[in-house]
Amino acid sequence: MTLVLAFDTATDVATSALVSDGAVLGERTSVARTLLEDVDILLAEASASPSDLDALVAGTGPGSFTSTRIGLAVARGLALALDLPVAGVSTLDALASAAEGAFPVVDARRREVFVPGPLVAAPDDLELAPGVLCIGSGAVRYRAALERKGALVPPDDDPLHVPRASLHAALAKDFGPAEGVFPVYVRAPDARVWSAA
Predict the structure, then answer these.
(1) Which of 20, 68, 183, 196 pairs with 32 at a CA distance of 20 to 30 A?
(2) What mean pLDDT do residues 42-63 have?
(3) How far apart are CA 97 and CA 197, in angstroms?
(4) 74 in a structural domain
(5) 191 pLDDT more than 90
(6) Is residue 56 a part of any domain in this protein?
(7) How far is residue 32's CA from residue 29's CA, in Å, rounded to a whole number?
(8) Residue 96 and residue 126: Cα distance in Å, rounded?
């Protein structure tokens, strides 16, 4: 039996899941700052302990810089403490796998969205096929712009908009050292390091 803990904290909704040989034992949605609490609850509900884990899967973004870093820091810490291999899975790829033909759109703030490529663009600049299913936080926020372009956007509370950790677990491959899993930022961060010169 292979027990995998997967999580993604790149968007406003953080997800975590405990998966055993492809079967989802439990899944939670919350926010990035409660990730470790969610992991603890998942393990307790499955009558498992951290030492029972065989691997980790972490969402790599793109999404919020800070939230993505939280998830990857947790993955690296757990991997080091428990000597576990880690695989990274794009938040966009996980979203896209939720429904056939889905086009993932993640809110990138600044009136922009992250889309496959990965790249960042204004919603009005996206070229979309008529009738394409747009899902994700960006699809919810920019529903009007996407629907003007002929896209279909499910209701705001539809679970398709959440990059569920169980989807990450299903897509994971290439497990290895946590240091080999890197965030997908797409654009430079707002923070700047100022020189004294």
Answers:
(1) 20
(2) 97
(3) 49
(4) yes
(5) no
(6) yes
(7) 9
(8) 16
